[in-house]
């Protein structure tokens, strides 16, 4: 798949880049995508939820009233889950939600997500760029030049660039990542995928096997 390369002004540079068929042109595997996204979201969970059980509640241990003769049910502790302020039955406990997936499956999921973007013509390639200083105004100008101002956009760089990252950090609909940190969830969550020529080469080296 051949794509024209644009500059940060949104103009064609005359150059073209070939998107590898083995990454952007495969038959997408929906189940691999499902598992990878599920893992990504599970790994984001802190798992610090906690409710106190009856043995953890602070309260008196005296018997509330006599065992027999009241006409009511027996009660031995104010900390019983049956009373207001008592412990919770089977309440949430801290746990780790993360789980592992095979490396090849995660690669398949990433290729499938990139292929979906290519099929929907949502992939754009920019020449490698940099900002002299970190300014949000510079990044907004780039998005306006590409007509992506109102689109949820994922920008993929070949390597980390502090000025570009800081310029985009305040924009709610924009995320900047490196090719090494690209994941299936971010690709699918974005309406438009912006690659630099350097990031295309990085992706090809990492995924084209």
Describe the structure.
By secondary structure, the chain is α/β, with parallel strands linked by helices. It folds into two domains: 2-45 and 97-207, Ribosomal Protein L4, Chain: A (3-Layer(aba) Sandwich); 47-96, no CATH class. Helices cover 34% and strands 15% of the residues. The protein has seven helices and six strands. A six-stranded mixed sheet has the order 2-1-3-6-4-5. Strand 1 and strand 2 form a beta hairpin. Helix 2 (30-44) crosses helix 3 (103-119) and helix 4 crosses helix 5 (162-168). The chain is elongated and about 95 Å long. The relative contact order is 0.19. The mean pLDDT is 92. Belongs to the universal ribosomal protein uL4 family. Residues 46-77 are annotated as: Disordered. This is Large ribosomal subunit protein uL4. One of its GO terms (cellular component) is ribosome. Part of the 50S ribosomal subunit.
Summarize this structure as a short list of keywords or feature phrases.
elongated, 209 residues, Ribosomal Protein L4, Chain: A, alpha/beta, six-stranded mixed beta sheet
Please specify the SSE layout and strand pairing.
Blueprint: E1 2-6, E2 12-18, H1 21-24, H2 30-44, H3 103-119, E3 123-126, H4 136-146, E4 153-157, H5 162-168, E5 174-178, H6 184-189, E6 192-196, H7 197-207
Parallel strand pairs: 1-3, 3-6, 4-5, 4-6
Antiparallel strand pairs: 1-2
Helix content: 25-40%
Shape: elongated
Q: What class would the helix/strand composition place it in?
A: alpha/beta
By CATH's scheme, which homologous superfamily of the largest domain applies?
Answer: Ribosomal protein L4/L1
Outline the biggest β-sheet: 6 strands, mixed
Gyration radius, to the nearest Å?
27 Å
| Low-pLDDT ranges | none
Tally of alpha and pi helices = 7
Number of domains: 2
Overall pLDDT level: 92
End-to-end distance, in Å?
A: 17 Å
Q: Which oligomeric state applies?
A: single chain
Number of DSSP-assigned strands: 6
CATH class of the largest domain: Alpha Beta
Strand content: 5-15%
Q: Which fold name fills CATH's third level, the topology of the largest domain?
A: Ribosomal Protein L4, Chain: A
Just name the CATH architecture of the largest domain: 3-Layer(aba) Sandwich
**How do the SSEs run, as a string of H and E?**
EEHHHEHEHEHEH
Family: Belongs to the universal ribosomal protein uL4 family.
Subunit structure: Part of the 50S ribosomal subunit.
Protein name: Large ribosomal subunit protein uL4
Keywords: Ribonucleoprotein, Ribosomal protein, RNA-binding, rRNA-binding
């Amino acid at each position: 798949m051949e794509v024209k390369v644009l500059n940060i002004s949104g103009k064609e540079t005359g150059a073209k880049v070939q998107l590898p068929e083995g990454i952007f042109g495969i038959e997408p595997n929906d189940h691999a995508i499902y598992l990878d996204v599920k893992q990504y979201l599970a790994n984001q969970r802190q798992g610090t939820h906690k409710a106190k059980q009856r043995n953890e509640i602070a309260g008196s241990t005296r018997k509330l009233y006599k065992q027999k003769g009241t006409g009511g049910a027996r009660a031995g502790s104010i900390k019983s889950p049956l009373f207001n302020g008592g412990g919770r039955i089977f309440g949430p406990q801290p746990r780790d939600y993360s789980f592992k997936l095979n490396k090849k499956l995660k690669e398949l999921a990433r290729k499938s997500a990139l292929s979906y973007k290519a099929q929907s013509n949502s992939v754009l390639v920019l020449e490698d760029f940099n900002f002299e200083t970190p300014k949000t105004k510079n990044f907004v100008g780039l998005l306006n030049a590409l007509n992506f101002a109102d689109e949820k956009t994922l920008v993929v760089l070949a390597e980390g660039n502090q000025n570009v990252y800081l310029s985009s950090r305040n924009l709610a609909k924009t995320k900047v990542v490196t090719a090494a940190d690209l994941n299936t969830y971010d690709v699918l969550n974005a309406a438009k995928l912006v690659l630099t020529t350097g990031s295309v080469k990085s992706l090809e080296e990492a995924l084209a096997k």
